[in-house]
Amino acid sequence: AKHLKLILGDQLNAQHTWFRVVDDDVVFVIAELHQEANYTKHHIQKITAFFSAMHEFAKTLELQGHRVCYLTLDDTQAFEDLTALIVGLVKKYDSESFSYQRPDEYRLREQLKNITSHINIPVYEADTDHFLLPFDELPNHFTKATHVRMENFYRSMRKRFNILMEGDKPTGGAWNFDSNNRQSFNKSDIKVIPKPLVFNNDASEYLARIKQHGIKTMGKESTEVAYPINKEQSLTLLRYFCQHQLPNFGNFQDAMTMASPYAWSLYHSRLSFAINCKILNPQEVIQTALLAYEESEGKITLPQIEGFIRQILGWREYVRGMYWINMPEYADQNFLSAQRDLPDFFWHGKSNMQCLNSAITQSLDHAYAHHIQRLMITGNFALLAGISPKQVDEWYLGIYIDAIEWVELPNTRSMALFADGGWIATKPYAASGNYVNKMSDYCKGCKYKVKEKIGENACPLNSLYWNFIGENYDKLSSNHRMSFPVGNWRKMAEAQKIEITEHANYLLNNLDTL
Ligand code: FAD
C-alpha cells in the first residue's frame, strides 16, 4: 500500500474525511498497543471497552470496503513501542507516506511528531474533525498560566454556534440556570430514578488477551462491556438519555444517594466514553438533545437542556483548551505543595467513611462515577488531605472509562486539587462534612458523625477542612473568594485551633485507617 494511516484508540470517528472515499492505496492501522495498555494502570473494564470499540470500528471500515490492518496485543508485542511498530509497518507495506490524526494527548503527539526522525517518507498530521473549536484557534481563547473564565468562553461558544440563542440573546433571557440545579434527593425522588441502559458486549476475547500478556490492571473484572462500543449502541444510549435522564439532568446534577440500585448513574448520560473515543461527535450529541428538548412539549425544561449543553459545549471544549495551552507545564503544577501518599483504600474501596467507600467501590465496580462524586467526594478528600497531585492524577487517569489525559488532568489538577493556583477555578472546591450531608445520604449510618469536629467518631472531613485552611493560610488569605472561611479560621480561639490541628494531624498520619 502506498499510504499508511494510523487510527488511535480514541479516534473512532467514522465521519472523518479520511473515510469519504474507498482507496486501495490506503491501509488503515488500528492496533492494540502494549504502550497504551501500560502507560498507567487502567481499570480492566476500560481496556476491554477500548479494544472492543477499536475492533468494532475496524470491522465497520472493512465492511465499507476500506483496507484495514487490525493488530492484537499478540501482533504488537514484538515492537518496543508505537514508534517501532510504525517503522515496521512502513517497511512491511513499503509505504510512500504515513499519516496520523492529531492526538488529543500531549505525550502521544510528541511521540508522533518525532516519527520523522525514524522514517524517511512524508509524514502528515490530520485534524481529528471532532471538537467544535478548531485547534488553531485555541490561542485566541486561552492564555498560558492565566485564569480563563469558563463562563465567558461558554457564552462565546453559544453565540458562535448559535445554540440556545434568540438573535444575540440567550434563550429564556439567561445564560445560566445553575441555581435551579442544586437539588438533593428526597425519598420520593429516589423511587423514580431511572434504570441506566447498559450493554452486554462480550469481552471475553479481550479479557483473555489482556491477562495472557500480563497487563497490570485495577477494578472489577467483567466478561461484558457495559458501555456502547459502536455507533448504533452509542446513538441508542444518547436517545435513552434524552428520554429518561435529560428531563431531570440539571435538577439533580450535583445530587448523590446510596438508596437506589441506580445510585451509580442517576440522571447522568454516561456518554463520556462514546464521545471521548469519538464514536459520537459532540455537535451531534448537542443537536440530538436540542431536538429532544424542542419536541418534549415542556417535559424537558430550559434549565435541564442548558445544563447539559453547558457541559459539552462549555466545559468539555474549555478543558481541552486549558490542557493544550498549558502543557507540558500543567503536569508539574502543585500550587499547594501537596506531598502525601494516596491512601490504600483508593485501590480497594474499604474505608469507614461511607462517602469514600461508596464512591470508590462504585468506581471500581463500574469504571464510572459522576462529576460530583469525582469532584466533591474523592477529589475533595484528596485536596483536604494534601495528596500528591501526581498520585491523584494517576488514579483518575486509570480508573474511569472516559479517562484520557487531556480531559482528566485539568479536571484533577485544577478543579479537584487547585494545583494550578487558579487557572480554572477561582478558589479551591474545599468542603467539610456539611456539604456531603447536604447533597447526599452518605452520612446516615456512617461510622463518623458529620456534626462532630474532634474525637474518634468525628467526621474526618471537618478537622481536615479547617486544618487545610490553616495549613494553606498564606496562599488562601489573599483570595477574596476565600475570605469567609479564612476569616473564620483567624477568629477561632487559639485553643480550638490547636485541638483541630492536632486531631487533623493524627488523621493525616493514619490516612489508611480512615
Ligand atoms: P454527564 O454528567 O452526563 O455530562 C455530559 C457530558 O458533558 C459528559 O459526557 C462530558 O463529555 C461532558 N462533561 C461534563 N463535565 C465535564 C468536565 N468537567 N470536563 C469535561 N467534560 C465534561 N471527564 C472525562 O471525560 N474524562 C476524565 O478523565 C475525567 N476526569 C475527571 C476527573 C475529575 C477529578 C473530575 C472532577 C471530573 C472529571 N471528568 C472527566 C469530568 C466529568 O466528571 C465527566 O466527564 C463525567 O462525569 C462523565 O460522565 P457522563 O458522561 O455521565 O457525564
Automatic annotation (TrEMBL):
Pfam families reported in the protein's UniProt record? DPRP
Keywords on record: Lyase
For whether the record's keyword set contains Lyase, the answer is yes
For molecular function, the Gene Ontology terms on record are:
lyase activity
InterPro entries from the UniProt entry = Crypto/Photolyase_FAD-like_sf, PhrB-like, Rossmann-like_a/b/a_fold, UV-DNA_repair_photolyase
Q: What is this protein called?
A: Cryptochrome/photolyase family protein
The scientific name of the source species is Psychrosphaera saromensis
